[in-house]
Amino acid sequence: MANKAQALEWLALQLPIVRVGTPVLVATHPEFGDKTYRVNVKKVQAEVVRYENIHFVVEDEGGAGEVAYFLNNNTIAWTNSHETGTTAP
Hints:
single chain, mainly beta, 6-stranded antiparallel β-sheet, 56% strand, elongated
């Protein structure tokens, strides 16, 4: 298992991800002792650029047992030589 910093480092090394944004706290769950974060990533592959939100959960943040888990992801915008689009509301 990886902690939050290790998870972000691993994410930055994944192809075709070229940039990882700053994590933003989106929810806290005191009853479970965890927090949910969102980080934006930029992916480039061939002629297509995609921006995605990746959500992950961190348990025991800052503690000896800190661990981060992938929650979900969604594409929020894309562009290529033929079109530009978004799935944002």
